[in-house]
Amino acid sequence: MALGLGGSSKWNGNPLTGGGITGVRRFNSKSQEARVLLAEILTKHNIPIPITLPDISTKDKAQQYINLPMDDLRIEKKKFFEEVVPEWIKEANERESKFQEKRIKISES
Length: 109
Hints:
Strands 1-2 form a two-stranded antiparallel sheet. A hairpin with a 7-residue loop joins strand 1 and strand 2. The model is unreliable at 4-13 (pLDDT under 50).
């Protein structure tokens, strides 16, 4: 996927090559705003455009792109729920068993 911008009546010239802005910026989405801001930064630092961006259109693709070890994380999560959470529940039950019961009546207005 190459970085690029859709047409907009608010742009006077091409922002990727230093064109000016007329009027107020209006974006259809956060991603469009991010693309414009990125284009401005790249232009400011003389980085040639278009640049190739990774395909992170899905959660799986994004996780693969950043080399997130999902299998290891799933194992850690399972271990956490099997070992840590039961301890937390046990401690909470012990702590709460020492609470004095208080009943508060809330009236409806």
